[in-house]
Design goal:
Elements (H helix, E strand, L loop, with lengths): L1 E3 L18 E2 L16 E3 L2 E5 L8 H7 L6 E3 L8 E3 L33 E6 L9 E6 L9 E3 L14 E4 L6 E6 L2 E2 L4 E2 L6 E4 L6 E4 L15 E4 L7 E4 L22 E5 L13 E8 L8 H4 L9 E4 L12 E5 L2
Parallel strand pairs: 1-14
Antiparallel strand pairs: 2-4, 3-4, 5-6, 7-8, 9-11, 10-11, 12-13, 14-15, 16-17, 18-19, 19-21, 20-21
Amino acid sequence: MIFRSPSFAQAALLAAPLAFSLACGPGSSDAQGSDGSASATTESSGPTTAGPSSSSASTSDAMTAGESDATSVTSDPSDPSDTSSTSAPTTDPCPFICDVDMAVPPACDPIVQDCPEGQECTPYDSSGGNSWDATKCVDITGDAQVGEPCTANPLTEGGDDCDGGLICWYLDEELHGTCIAHCTGSEENPACPDSCETCVINGDGTLNLCLPGCDPLLVDCPVEGDLCVQDPGFDGHFACTFPAPELAPVGAPCEYVNACEAGSLCLNAAFFPHPDCGDADYCCAPICDTTQGAGDNPSCLGVADAVPGVECVGYSEGEPDACAPGAGACVVP
């Protein structure tokens, strides 16, 4: 599954953001390749719900999340064609003549990994602006594998102690994190080694990350406190992202896909018309387990009085998602 940004505003380590909207239900809308926005429609098999883009985090939060700052703007989250993005500016340290040691190393391709043997292509901060805005070849100095703990070098240097083809992500303030894979294949057809992972490519291709898949019923994100959310750009699958600074409870308005408390999702209010959401476009709705029934689902019973006709509806059209079987949301079909 591929999720190509701009889309998914995360914390400040991505030079170009990723913004994202949510689509769920058996009748999924077509996912657009760049931001995954979708329109809300109703089909006989169930609803499709479109959600807003995700909230951005502060630069200090970026060290914890290991993710990106918002630099793209989606004027209408239901219109995938109406997305613009701006990349973080870079500063040329050698505008005319400079010492060779000061020159920014030539770019390489983190998908193709076209560096000499014993080296890997890695993103780094070429301008000192706390964003990974360029790539360069560095020596492979470690052998930590996917899911194992790692330590990153200072961002202006790039590199870490993960094995080749991997990157140390989900960093804390001491630059300790977890190894995840770079996307492989080609820019036109990137892939991840695990079918439940999501390939995320930032706007200029500096970062190519295989984000771990997750199951919202299990709360199994590798970083404590991260949220498991879904986007049409994930082909109906779920992936982990950092939470917004403030999280809304079920039945409260939301503006971002990562702005609802764990156990709920920010959905189009047309499919979860909770009275406390008023005229808001989006509302936090409960996540539910489709194996526990539809109208009598225990996750939906608590909101049945406020939202008459609410049922548990699965996210995947057709067969359940093997990466999150049974995951659904309480909506009015």
